Amino acid sequence: MNVLVFDIETIPDVETGRRLYGKQASITKLSDEEVARVMYQQRNQESKGQTEILRHHLQKVVAISAVLRIGERLRVDSFGTADSKEEEIIQQFFKTIQHYTPMLVSWNGGGFDLPVLHYRALKHGIQAERYWNIHGNFRFDNYLNRFHERHTDLMDVLAAYQPRAYASLDDIATMLGFPGKLGMSGDKVWETYLQEGGIQKIRDYCETDVLNTYLIFLRFELMRSHLNETEYTQECQRVHKLLVDGSIKPHFQEFLKAWKL
């Protein structure tokens, strides 16, 4: 089975923010950073101080990274380039699904990543026939049903679909002896984006997130006997070799240094 472990990183969709809040405080004349601040404030008010995390339809995708296992081939990369437009990145993601029909694996992808991608694909008019298919062979195993395996949200499944049991990717990766977060987290993405060279830093961070997710997935496969202990060790060694071969990338070097295989 082909496997695509994915993760997205987002920033405030200031374009939509200007449209939604355009009548407030002459927002159309504000900088992107100031518009984002208004959006966070509005969200804080809506949630009565519970959160500033923007709603899914107000998120703009700046990076999608993936570990892609096709047969014996394994690679980790980000879609597009640091200069690619959002539309191009998302289109490449759905084209990969269309071409390989992989099993999608994520951490909180059902609760965050996929809904965001749905809204952004809707905004850009991106077609994804196979992804949206819920008929024929996909009727009882499609990407949209929470309880199907064609998309496996590890956070959701491991918590037995109980929100009270949810855990963070960083906590579980660290618990299992994997590197976890390496000095960056999702709440720093907007701040990083505003810096020079920020997009590349975000893409690198996103790639380490999918590596953590893939390693957790391998342990999950071991737990449910889809891999035996020898196969599990071999798969981890395959990831390690992939990173050693690509160790010219500083974030791969950092990941390897933190991972005691």
Secondary-structure topology with pairs:
Elements: E1 3-12, H1 14-20, H2 32-46, E2 59-70, E3 73-78, H3 86-100, E4 103-106, H4 109-124, H5 129-132, E5 151-153, H6 154-158, H7 169-175, H8 189-193, H9 198-223, H10 229-245, H11 250-258
Parallel strand pairs: 1-4, 4-5
Antiparallel strand pairs: 1-2, 2-3
Highlighted features:
261 residues; alpha/beta; Nucleotidyltransferase, domain 5; five-stranded mixed β-sheet; 13% strand
Question: Would you kindly provide a written description of the structure presented here, covering whatever features stand out?
Answer:
With 261 residues, the protein is an alpha/beta fold. The chain has a single domain, classed as Nucleotidyltransferase, domain 5. 48% of the residues lie in helices and 13% in strands. It has eleven helices and five strands; from the N terminus they run βααββαβααβαααααα. The chain has helices at 14-20, 32-46, 86-100, 109-124, 129-132, 154-158, 169-175, 189-193, 198-223, 229-245, 250-258, and strands at residues 3-12, 59-70, 73-78, 103-106, 151-153. A five-stranded mixed β-sheet has the order 3-2-1-4-5, sandwiched between helices. α3 crosses α4 and α7 (169-175) crosses α9 (198-223). The longest helix has 26 residues, at 198-223. It is globular and about 65 Å long. The two termini are 25 Å apart.
